[in-house]
Amino acid sequence: xxxxxxxxxxxxxxxxxxxxxxxFEPSIDSTNNWALxxxxxxxxxxxVFLTDFQTRGHGRQDRVWESTKGKNILMSLIDEAPxxxxxxxxxxLVAGVAFQEALASLFPSLxxxxxxxxxxxxxxxxxxxxxxxxxxxxxxxxxxxxxxxPTAVIGVGINVNSTEKDFSEPVGGLAASLTLQIxxxxxxxxxxxxxxxxxxxxxxxxxxxxxxxxxxxxxxKTDMMGKKVRVxxxxxxxxxxxxxxxxxxxxxxxxxxxxxxxxIIL
Length: 266
Prior knowledge:
7 helices, 2 domains, alpha+beta, 12 strands, globular, 7-stranded mixed β-sheet, SH3 type barrels, 5-stranded antiparallel β-sheet, BirA Bifunctional Protein, domain 2
């Protein structure tokens, strides 16, 4: 597939900040690393970093993020970090709400749901009514704060045009792509523009009203409430029922706040 067309992305942008400057490299170690380094050399909030291939793409806890060259979206954007450094995680929720909204607007036939803390899952329509069907991972978000500046980098990997043969054996049963769901190739530039437009919208909401509208939207875009989950935090494993997303953005399981760890829907 051809490289990402920056002019086409900008043609569909309605933003005043995010995406006004877009950097592209055919291959890079990690767009998050690239963006974090860019901050040291003067890159500003709103700048976007894109690549067609990552040699060291990673998600939370340094898990490898698989992506075949030229098929998917590998993007990081620079944003202001919340004044309270303890709230940096909330930008993950802002991004999740924004990207889910963007994808749902472009592909209304798909059932795309948020999974705490940083994933977007898709439930194929033909399987939606099957008992205990589990969603497959469509996208993952990784938010990282710059080590010495009041800025953050929000990275996202979205499986757009991957086919079944592009996923390794363990990943294939857990991952999905837009093209696998709708049965035809997807324009990456259109998806990128929609995601940036939505992120700017929801970031403004966050700046004006705090987490509350984000929390409300997040709860509307997830099917985790009332589901049984397994929470893995180091050697500690707990199972319970999801009750809520609290006012700070943490998951509540059996009345107890989950601050970190892997959450597996059972």
